[in-house]
């Protein structure tokens, strides 16, 4: 059942990417800079490390702050990411386990081609809190508090680059504040809208 859901998610993601790429090519070149610092997003994904995978769903708000800086032929901007995630894992003896995660991440976004490219890369570091000790078949976190690191790559599209799609890799661990500290990694697909 879990494999069927993952395959469905991959098919939907592939379809979205195909439609997105086609519509982006059909549009005239437009500015990738939005008129407002606010954005909202949804994302879904799965963990990579555990024997029993966890599925993740997230909703969040972004806010761009700070000034633009030139770096290596591109432009760097910064934004805050505030979110709520729902994690669901299946364990043999107890069935489905669910966890809610809230967090805030400070991100740096590098936009290529002097900032004119629709393509970007993100790097983020933040703090998160689970409503319980996250546990899978082979991992148990010893703290509810976790550090979170994010790497992402994506593309803006639509009028003024208001829409964006990105693929993101997330790592959570407590930084060895307490043992055990197995950490976990996840890959997620994000759709965002800037308004």
From TrEMBL:
Tell me where on the tree of life, at the top rank, the source sits: Bacteria
Please classify the protein's predominant subcellular localization into one broad category. membrane
Coiled-coil-forming residues are none
What is the annotated localization of this protein?
A: Cell outer membrane
| Record-linked SUPFAM superfamilies | OMPA-like
Gene Ontology terms, MF aspect: hydrolase activity
Q: Which UniProt keywords apply?
A: Hydrolase, Signal
Write the signal peptide boundaries. 1-26
Name the chain's protein: Acyloxyacyl hydrolase
Species in which this protein is naturally found: Variovorax rhizosphaerae
């Amino acid at each position: 059942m879990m494999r069927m859901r993952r395959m469905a998610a991959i098919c939907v993601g592939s379809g979205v990417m195909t439609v997105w790429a086609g519509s982006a090519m059909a549009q005239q070149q437009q500015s990738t800079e939005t008129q407002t610092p606010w954005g909202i997003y949804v994302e879904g994904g799965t963990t990579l490390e555990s024997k029993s995978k966890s599925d993740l769903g997230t909703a969040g708000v972004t806010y761009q702050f700070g000034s633009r800086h030139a770096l290596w032929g591109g432009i760097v901007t910064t934004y805050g990411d505030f979110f709520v995630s729902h994690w669901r894992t299946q364990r043999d003896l107890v069935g489905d386990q669910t966890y809610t995660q809230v967090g805030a991440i400070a991100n740096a976004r590098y936009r290529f081609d002097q900032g004119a490219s629709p393509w970007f890369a993100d790097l983020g570091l933040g703090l998160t809190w689970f409503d319980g000790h996250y546990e899978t078949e082979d991992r148990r976190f010893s703290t509810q508090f976790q550090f979170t690191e994010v790497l992402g790559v994506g593309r803006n599209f639509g009028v003024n680059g208001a829409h964006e799609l990105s693929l993101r890799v997330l790592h959570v661990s407590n930084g060895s504040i307490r043992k055990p500290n197995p950490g976990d990694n996840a890959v997620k697909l994000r759709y965002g809208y800037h308004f």
